[in-house]
Design a protein that fits this description.
Blueprint: E1 3-8, E2 20-27, H1 30-38, E3 47-50, E4 56-57, E5 65-69, E6 74-79, E7 83-89, H2 94-104, H3 122-125, E8 128-129, E9 132-133, E10 138-145, E11 151-155, H4 156-159, E12 177-178, E13 181-182, E14 191-201, H5 211-220, H6 227-241, E15 250-253, E16 259-260, H7 262-271, E17 277-279, E18 285-287, H8 289-295, E19 302-303, E20 306-308, E21 315-318, H9 328-346, E22 355-356
Parallel strand pairs: 2-5, 3-5, 4-22
Antiparallel strand pairs: 1-2, 6-7, 7-14, 8-9, 10-11, 10-14, 12-13, 15-21, 16-18, 17-18, 19-20, 20-21
The structure holds uridine-diphosphate-2(N-acetylglucosaminyl) butyric acid.
Length: about 350
């Protein structure tokens, strides 16, 4: 285990915000985690687990110990007549994992192509795109309890997945240990995900129906697309709509799509007939946060060096560069201004997706 001091974090967060970690350890194995927890100086420090840094806004230097997750490995765990079970180390880049499964002939993750971040972060937010969420393909994950050093495995039910939500998004309660293992809601800051296993069902069925994908299918005049075609379409759609963090710093969608009751929705439609809304299985209505922000005139606007992307109002971007990068404070100021105008116009409170640290 190598302990690094005063480490620049600008290359470690996709927003490209300049900040430093006082202390950083690169975690390449579960043994590295055990070594941290056995170290008298490191063990008691508060900890920040960093994956691809695609879902974090840094508002200053990071004093807690940064655990940079770099556990690698991609493998087929099992193949049955009903599914392929595949596994990836937490430090693998998510898109690399998706591309690897397709290259091996295991389809099922194509709708989730090009989502930024690492495999270890994918269950935290229950990443999703184009009609598929991680929970639809999830088998189990391995994690280490930072309080006790114990390893444990969680299935989908124990992860308590919701829309961009899981047990890893909620703070633990102090009395939440049973037989030495964390139990119930709340593993944020408590558990480090080390490996993730996914179940890719057989026979493979394409997930279409999402407007942008249906448009591509119509253009290509294909009735039964292959997984590879869907992968290519998703990559094209995302490249056209979403900024590449390597070119323009960003953290993907900055806000969650809010849900409202049918009554609230009817009330808004009466005032704003063009509002984009989707009925959900549970009877609630999901609204497109990007549309709400766009309707408030924010597309292309900036506060300081924090900007709203021209092609997708749900994405905030870094209009600074290198040493002149946006600050986390500017991003938070812009996000608050957007929340205020959406609330004043629609009575809806937008909830940020990334963690503000
Ligand atoms: N819209 C506007 N103006 C905008 C942006 C969007 O009018 O500036 C409208 C679009 O025309 C569309 C609707 O809003 O009718 C929804 O937009 P889009 O299809 O682009 O999807 P989204 O709801 O903005 C969500 C996810 C994305 C995911 C896409 C595709 C959330 C918060 N975001 O975006 O996820 O890629 O659907 O499935 O759920 C991410 O989480 O980082 C992310 C990129």
């Amino acid at each position: 285990m190598v302990v690094e001091k005063n480490v620049p974090l600008q290359p470690c967060n996709t927003f490209g915000i300049a900040a430093r970690a006082h202390t950083l350890v690169r975690v390449r194995s579960v043994d590295d985690l055990h070594a941290v927890l056995a170290d008298a100086q490191l063990a008691p420090l508060p900890k920040l687990v960093l994956g691809g840094g695609s879902n974090i806004i840094l508002t200053g230097d990071v004093k807690p110990l940064v655990l940079k997750m770099e556990i690698k490995g991609l493998r087929l765990v099992q193949e049955t007549d009903r599914a392929w079970i595949v596994e990836a180390g937490a430090g693998e880049v998510w898109h690399t994992f998706v591309a690897w499964t397709l290259a091996q002939g295991f389809p099922g993750l194509e709708n989730l192509a090009l989502i930024p971040g690492t495999v270890g972060a994918s269950p935290v937010q229950n990443i999703g795109a184009y009609g598929v969420e991680l929970q639809d393909r999830f088998e189990s994950l391995d994690a280490v309890d930072l309080a006790t050093g114990q390893s444990f495995t969680l299935d989908a039910a124990q992860c308590a997945f919701g829309y961009r939500d899981s047990v890893f998004e909620h703070a633990p309660s102090p009395s939440q240990t049973e037989g030495g293992l964390p139990r119930g809601m709340g593993l944020a800051g408590r558990a480090v995900i080390t490996r993730v296993r996914l179940r890719l069902p057989k026979p493979w069925k394409p997930v279409l129906g999402y407007l942008d994908l249906e448009r591509r299918r119509a253009e290509a005049a294909v009735d039964q697309p292959t997984a590879r075609q869907i992968f290519d379409w998703v990559c094209d759609i995302r490249r056209a709509k979403l900024p590449d963090p390597a070119v323009l710093g960003n953290a993907g969608s900055f806000f969650k799509n809010p849900t409202v009751t049918p009554e609230q929705c009817a009330d808004i439609i009466a005032r704003e007939p063009r509002i984009v809304h989707y009925p959900m299985a549970d009877g609630s209505i999901k609204l497109a946060a990007g549309w709400l922000i766009d309707a408030c005139g924010w597309k292309g606007k900036s506060i300081g060096k924090a900007g709203v992307y021209e092609k997708q109002a749900l994405v905030l971007v870094n209009r600074g560069q290198g040493g002149d990068s946006v600050t986390g404070g500017e991003v938070v100021t812009l996000a608050r201004a957007i929340q205020t105008s959406v609330y004043e116009r629609f009575g809806i409170r937008l909830e940020p997706e990334p963690v503000v640290w």
